[in-house]
Amino acid sequence: MPIYYPDILDQRTDPRTFTYGDKDVMLYALGIGLGADPMGEKELRFVYERDLKVVPTAATVLASAGVGRAAAGRTSAPLPEGHRASQINFLMMVHGEQKVELHKPLPAFGTFTAEGRTVGAWDKGEGKGAVVVNETTWTDEKGEKVATLTGSMFARGDGGFGGPTEGQPEPHATPTRTPDLSVDIGTRPDQALLYRLNGDRNPLHSDPEFAARAGFPRPILHGLCTYGMTCRAVLQATLDYDADQILSHQARFSAPVFPGDTITVDLWKDSKEISFEARVKDRGVTVIKNGLTVLR
Fold it and tell me: Domains of the chain: which residue ranges?
């Protein structure tokens, strides 16, 4: 089923209530490599239940805590009468950009309600794909907004639907000066096997045969794991691990990381904005572009 425009802009998901706890928070932090030094007190706060802190980018996985991403899938709310339901070819979809905005710091546990909607769709042309932007909003038990997650997806198999070709939001412009500082973060060979326990069990990240069929020499790291590692770099290098200072964290995915790679995160600090990019020096490839962290 193709994309129908502008009908797709009326597509929403039914509200879904979920609960996460300290185990889910700690598993995410371990999945992005925090806690490697058992004597490192600042990182220990993210992986030990005493005075537990939450990495802001954990919002990308906590809504599926304990049930897995498939079981936590999006259930579409009814469309207005006469509107057609769009169905994207998920086998041809690639994660393009991700943003997490926290309206208040995430607690170590809680119950929330998530509701999603499509906020944009741009047509690259027949055979050239489409860009679809979805937004998910969390509210707490008081009905107060807690987080807004915005994800841009490149739907490689869904171009030519007759939607707008211009007007897509421009990515954040990374400063042209030399980075103010750089951080090297190593990944473990089994990093993807640990990170997948947060809910995304796509075999692309665990099965060598599946990865080969997808054109990769071996399983790749989850893009959202790399995204979380850039947030870890910001916390480590500029905020002394004070996660409560982060209002939002956004980035574009530009190339995959292989478990075992060392990621170099370049950072530029300008008042309340921290720009960043990430690269794997050994392979000469940039894996994250147009990154921006905004502080409170």
Answer: 7-155, 181-295
- Contact (CB, 8 A) for 293 and 286: no
* 200: annotated active-site residue: yes
Which of 123, 158, 172, 205 is the catalytic position?
A: 205
With beta carbons less than 8 A apart as the criterion, state whether 112 and 140 touch.
yes
From first to last of its 296 residues, what are the pLDDT tens digits of the chain? 589 999 999 999 999 999 999 999 999 999 999 999 989 999 999 999 999 999 999 999 999 875 544 444 456 788 888 889 998 887 788 899 999 999 999 999 999 999 999 999 999 999 999 999 999 999 999 999 999 999 999 998 899 999 999 999 999 999 999 999 999 999 999 999 999 999 999 999 999 999 999 899 999 999 999 999 999 999 999 999 999 999 999 999 999 999 999 999 999 999 999 999 999 999 999 999 999 999 99
Q: Which fold has domain 7-155?
A: Thiol Ester Dehydrase; Chain A (3.10.129)
pTM above 0.70, yes or no: yes
Q: Write down the catalytic residue from 24, 200, 261, 266.
A: 200
Whether residue 95 lies in the annotated active site: no
Burial label for 290, CB within 10 Å (0-12, 13-18, 19+), is middle
Q: What CATH number should be reported for the domain whose range is 181-295?
A: 3.10.129.10
DSSP-assigned letter for residue 83: P
